[in-house]
Amino acid sequence: MLNRASSLPAGSTGGSLERTRRAAPTILFWAGMLLLAVGWIGNALWRQIGNAPELALIALGLFSAIAAWVLGRLLRCPFATALLVVWLTALACCAGFASSVTIVLLAVAALAIGSCIVPARWPARVALSALVGIALMAGVVGWTLPFPVPRIRLVYLIVLTLIVAWRWRELGVMLRPLPGQWSDAVRAAPAAAGAAVLMLGVVSTHAWLPTIMYDDLVYHLGLPAQLASQGYYQMNAGSNVWALAAWSADVWQGIAWVVADVESRGLVNMLWFAVSEMLLWRLCKELNLGHGLRWLALALFASTPLLAGSLASMQTEGPTTAVVLGLALLIQRSERAEARALVVTGVLFGLLVGLKISNLWFALPLGLWLLWQWRLRLPWRALPLAVLAGVVVAGSSYVYAWVLTGNPVLPLFNDIFHSPFYPPANFHDARWDSGFGAGIVWQIVFHTSDYLEGQAGAVGFFLIGLAGSFFVALTRPNSRTLALTAAVTMLLPLAVIQYVRYAAPGIALLIPAMLCGLPALTDTPRHRWMQSATLWLLVVLGGLFLTTATWQFKTKALQRWLGSGDTGVYEKYAPSRLIAQVIRYRHGDTARVLMLPDRQPFVAELSGKGFSNSWYDPRVQALLDKPDARQDATPWLRAIQWTGANLLITSAASTPPGLRDAIAQSHGKLAYATGGLELWQLRTGSPGVVVDSSASGLTVAFDTSDTPSRQTLVHGELTLACKAHRLVVDWQVRMTDGRRLDRRQSIPCASDGQARASFDAAVAGKVEDFDASAKPASTIGTHPRLLASRASFRVDRTAANDLARKLRRKLAFW
Hints:
This protein is of the alpha+beta class and 814 residues long. The model is unreliable at 1-12 (pLDDT under 50).
């Protein structure tokens, strides 16, 4: 029998259906663009575009274009290549020499490790090897975090150098083809390449700014700062409930900080961003997209404010996006099951969960896609190794959290685990319960402020402009599964909590899927030009809204940084970071800080020595959550005593009377003030008594009857009248368990005839006796006379909260 279509005459319904089918991609493409125009006009989005922030980015882009044109003429290289050199030079200059060299070393070491697993025949081997190497390095270091590493910077440098030396031949094989591949890609679409690199360069300015984001100052800086300053991580969940949350991203930041000896957030984020762009390029190639569309994909990725904003913080969405794109590439190219592919997939799934527990939202659709792609025919013999690799990469934070706090995902689901470090309730941010419905995509594009601390347009406009092309991609065999997976990857987090930042990796994955649904270019130059111009208009619109996702750019932080550097930015936006520098340089290791301003619990970089009146530190909050705290000094004094604080950070504009009285009773002295914050030094303690005085010197004893029962911070001061050139002061601390600490100081006798000595130490036990002896350094001088003395004994709450130390003691006991 003949089918119905073949029996119909030409020009009948069958021909009409065929013409409609062929015209559908074009119709849906322009329908999406029309819908975007309606939303743009209806919501008056042009009002969101500011003046100074956007003009600053436009000026930088124009300046870079001019510099690249001149450089291209001098070096006789393509405009895109010259532009890349200009922006890389600017990034290195802004980040500093140490950070730049460190990131290159870390990237090469990651390539060396990853190349042992990723075979040469795989596409995007460089990007995948880097991703696998980063995962394994972060995983291994994560397990070592509780154990102090002496001279940690030297150790890391030696290990990284040995890794690179071990694989230098293979590294040469991997990296040698890259310049040629770049030249071929630029030559195939020079205009698109230049436009994409220009957008990438403008976006890289997000990495220039110092770290001033809220969550970074509250939590993310903690692990890197402790690793760099003391060689291990305290895991101090007692003063920050997120201390044991999934930490792979922060571990990688910590490795870079240790090696560079300076915070290197900007370049670390640029490494993640570059890996994402490389993987996106190769994914587009696997989908048979041409060079022009590949460059467009890179530009769309960079011009999406939400994705570009990941460069400005230590949040995990940037690294997560790279991992999601890497897994998508692996699954897209793996039509049959391979043992090596399963192991690499296990490593990347481990990194996904090691970055954040909520990344299971992405692991679920990607895992189902992999099972579908392999038709459930897994290489079972390689499965144990893949699972082991995933556990090594992801498991450290969850295992340590479970062992030390009783909750592997603290503070999440504590209504189930009942950890004593957080109230028995499930943590949930009710601010983002906006509701999930059929119009969620429209809402997050045009009403973004309901779903993000940002403005309309922060998620980019291609979600609406290319919506019609997405439905076309669902009908095409090569992109159907990718498009469906990308949609689920974006929508699943939004179904759980309507916070659009969590959906950023899914939004990125939609870019290649949507481009697969574009209509084929016609032979008519006019139509071809219109379609191309419309697509690049999406990039331009995204670039104009780059400042909507990050408050730093909207408030002109970039201009301030260009004018006055990091210090100027800190003074305006994060004065707590300047105070942290003062504390480190002036007050030493025994400083303990209680930060009290509302909504500013910024103590992460104080290496466990800071405490805050916030829900991040429930015990301090409970002490101060009293109805009479504004007027009564008692709650404040209890908090000071409980934390062992000798430094307070307060707000100059809103210090309650009760806190002022507590500062006065603690003999507080203003030590530093900046940006509306004040640093107070407390002078508690009692005077000593001269118990022995002779021609050779004197001995002062201090009352130790009321010292803390365990870890103690001991502080002593002596002011002596002297006539000798120098004095020798011997401090002695004896503990109840028989241990003792002796320290000798040689101090000068000043021109006013006085000598001042001080002692600070943290001891792991109860102090039984504390005294100081002073005598002339030579027989020529006369013996000194005591003018004043003081000693204080504070509880060392930092040591009490040091769960890593407790873990080491348990292991030693076992």
